[in-house]
Amino acid sequence: MEFSFDTIKTPVDQILLREKGSKFIGFAFPVRNDFEIKESLNKIKEIHPKATHHCYAFRLGVTGENYRANDDGEPSGSAGSPIYNQLLAHNVTNILVIVVRYYGGTKLGVSGLVRAYKETAKVTLESSEIITEELKSELLIQFPFTQQNVIFTLLNKFEAKILDFTAEEKCSIKARLKTAEKENISDQLAEMQNISFEFLN
């Protein structure tokens, strides 16, 4: 199972290429879900309402299992696929790359379009900072008040981040930690008395 993936750290803005009068402008966004994809696309359409095409490709999921390429009116396979292939070539996921085109009066032909969209996506990705993100899981633990020190020590050991803590007679903690550590922490929690726990994702 994959426990980490490569993505970009921050959005990349306005990478410009010119081809026979046409302008190609590249953008890249780190995204986590369909809502963020839609939001980023709408933002670019607002900035460039007069552009001839807003072509894009995205990959979501640890292995990029959820993906799409869109030609937005360009000849089939001449825009979305070359952008998508650059996402594969750079092995990045949870990312959206949009290439905006302003038509310059000269037709480029399918091979010319493929080259222009590929190059714009490539340069856009090369100008971004690619980072490795660890997959995270959320854990809910319930335990008697007297055991809170033991639980905190354990969570600390696994570098877990506390998201929520309720201290009553019966305490509960919600924490986030690396998915890679799921099995190890489960083994240790299972050995403790009067404790119940479950993973939320």
Helix content: 25-40%
Q: Can you tell me the number of structural domains?
A: 2
Rg, alpha carbons: 23 Å
Q: Uncertain regions: pLDDT < 50 for 5+ in a row?
A: none
Could you give the order of the helices and strands? EEEHEEHEHEEHEEHE
The level 1 CATH classification of the largest domain is Alpha Beta
Q: DSSP helix count?
A: 5
First-residue to last-residue Cα separation: 15 Å
Strand percent estimate: 35-45%
Name given to the CATH architecture of the largest domain: 2-Layer Sandwich
What does this structure look like?
The protein is an alpha+beta fold. The chain starts with a strand and ends with a strand. It is elongated and about 75 Å long. The protein has a five-stranded antiparallel sheet, sandwiched between helices. A four-stranded antiparallel sheet has the order 9-10-8-11, covered by helices on one side. The chain has two domains: about 5-135, Ribosomal Protein S5, domain 2, CATH 3.30.230.30; about 135-200, Alpha-Beta Plaits. It has helices at about 35-45, 80-90, 110-125, 150-155, 180-190; strands at about 5-10, 10-20, 20-30, 55-60, 65-70, 95-100, 130-135, 135-145, 160-165, 170-180, 195-200.
Topology:
Layout: E1 4-8, E2 12-19, E3 22-30, H1 34-47, E4 53-60, E5 66-70, H2 80-89, E6 95-102, H3 109-126, E7 130-134, E8 136-144, H4 148-157, E9 161-166, E10 170-178, H5 182-190, E11 196-199
Antiparallel strand pairs: 1-7, 2-3, 3-6, 4-5, 4-6, 8-10, 8-11, 9-10
Helix pairs in contact: 2-3
Features:
201 residues; Ribosomal Protein S5, domain 2; Alpha-Beta Plaits; 2 domains; 5-stranded antiparallel β-sheet
